[in-house]
Amino acid sequence: MIKDNITYTELLEDESTNEVSAQDMYTAMQENSNKKYFSTQKWIFGILGFIIFPQMLIWMNIDFFTFPALFCWIGLFIFYRKGKMAQRTNVEFDIDSNVEKRMNAVKEAFDFVNNADEVFPSAGLWSIIFLDTNVDIYGWEDPTDNDEIFFMPDVCLVNVKQSGFSAIEYEKMNSGYTDSKDTAHSPPSDCEILGKTWLHTRKDGQPDLRYTDNPTVYSIKKGFTLISDHPHFKEGQDSNFSAGLIISSPSIAKDFNSKMKNIFSSGGISTSKQKKSVKPKEKPDS
User: Fold this and answer.
1) pTM beyond 0.70, yes or no
2) What is the dihedral of CA 43, 48, 51, 57, to 10 degrees?
3) CA 174 to chain CA centroid, nearest Å
4) How far apart are the C-alpha atoms of 47 and 61, rounded to whole Å?
5) Which stretches of the chain score pLDDT less than 50?
6) CATH number at 97-181+221-274
């Protein structure tokens, strides 16, 4: 993806470099979450605590080695926790009035869509692993293909099939609606009923009375709101992300689509800046 031109202030190890793009910032965040901190210490405490000292305790039958083993277990746990904390990134956004309006609109849209009886996949208030921030993040994860989208103050942050984060400007995103037809034995109360039949039918379409267990099957219509960075919602080299929500109520899905369109159409805001990210005081070993 072509990197956007929005710049952010960040406290970097190289003090001469104090600006990064949104793409660079979120990429660095993900790379940091995958780093293995304190590996040397964890290996030392692990080998001593689970192999050497227990073996010496067995061979020499001296209770003294219980205490060093216990000490190593505690040390391993401490460095494990320190490593997890080092993998986290703390980002504080300076929110101006325009970005605040956008985030309020995002919250309103997701609060609204969750008035539907069913939303698949689940969408709403979300959290990004290893990221701490001063704003509420909304979005969803599609469990069928592991696609993720998060509505950040600055960009839409997408992760296609867990391949890595891409930062897409709001004004480059698109929203669309289409009907989603389905069948159900117990349809959601807010879907549109198109017709009904039975699991077993006669040639004339009436229920086959030979079957005592012959439930009604309803033809129903739900709504499908699709989000993509391609104007025609095509997947391929020209797009980074396409994913949607199946919403039981077609009317709610249509209104949610309208809300998303409004958010994207007014998304050309480039004044939001990030405060300096908080780094661990101690420099961890890789």
Assistant:
1) yes
2) -170
3) 19
4) 19
5) 1-17, 268-286
6) 2.30.29
